[in-house]
Design a protein that fits this description.
Helix content: over 70%
Number of strands: 0
Mean pLDDT: 86
Number of domains: 1
Strand content: under 5%
Structural class: mainly alpha
Number of helices: 6
Length: about 120
């Protein structure tokens, strides 16, 4: 089971990777990050839906012919779920802010895809 420190570190790594740009080397090698998130999110009943969406995102990104619309839709859905989830975690500590930052980074990644077409 992931500790609070593990999750915080994973959040930081993911936000930094996405902030560097969708086409940065860190994001291109993000399959490992996605798998780490799937494991963490699968541990709790209230995050299973996000884990399932991440699995679908991993499959879409890893496809020989990735469907940009599917990827954008999944990124948007994940961002929206994270925004709601961050509000549900309360306002104390840094976790809600990190979750909101990740939601913003996911939205930005989706936007980058639409400008890359």
């Amino acid at each position: 089971m992931a500790t609070h420190a593990d999750t915080t570190e994973l959040l930081d790594t993911t936000i930094t990777s996405l902030s560097d740009g969708l086409y940065s080397p860190a994001v291109k090698e993000s399959a490992n990050l996605i798998q780490q998130w799937v494991e963490v999110l699968s541990e709790s009943e209230n995050t299973h839906d996000m884990a399932d969406k991440l699995k679908r995102l991993d499959e879409a990104v890893g496809s020989q012919t990735p469907d940009v619309n599917t990827i954008q839709s999944l990124l948007k859905d994940l961002a929206e779920e994270l925004q709601i989830f961050s509000a549900d975690t309360g306002s104390e500590g840094e976790m809600p802010l990190q979750l909101q930052s990740l939601a913003t980074a996911l939205r930005h990644a989706g936007d980058q895809l639409s400008t890359a077409e």
